[in-house]
Amino acid sequence: MSEWTFIALLFIISMTFPAVPIVAGRVIGPRKPNPLKNSVYECGVETVGDTWVQFKVQYYLFALVFLVFDIEVVFMFPWAVAYNQLPLYGVISGVVFVILLAEALIYAWRKGVLEWV
Fold first, then answer.
1. pTM confidence score
2. Contact 65, 114 (CB under 8 A)
């Protein structure tokens, strides 16, 4: 089996796994729509006014910066645990990673992404 056959097989499997439950739910699932089921549900409280409220982009940017630096901890933890056994190349690459993250934090700070308005 060539490597391209393996990749094609993996692609087919990766498309089949999510498609099977979706198609099965459409085929087997009951369909009894009514106005109550089709109404907007907001934590049990009846909505007043327009249900489509536009949020400030600042909230999404703040969440994105948080996510980036949260994932950073996942990458930094194994490096910090194995710090004593790392060769010089591992230490230097970790320091470069920290410097890049510090640069990204300074950039986000100067752009005002961290200001909660």
1. 0.48
2. yes
Domain around 64: 3-111
Write down the pLDDT at residue 9.
93
Dist CA 41 CA 61 (whole Å): 27
Contacts of 103 (CB under 8 A, 6+ apart): none
Contact (Cβ atoms closer than 8 angstroms) between residue 40 and residue 51: yes
User: Domain with 92 in it: what CATH number?
Assistant: 1.20.58
Q: What angle do CA 60, 65, 67 make, to 5 degrees?
A: 90
Neighbours of 79 (CB within 10 A): 16
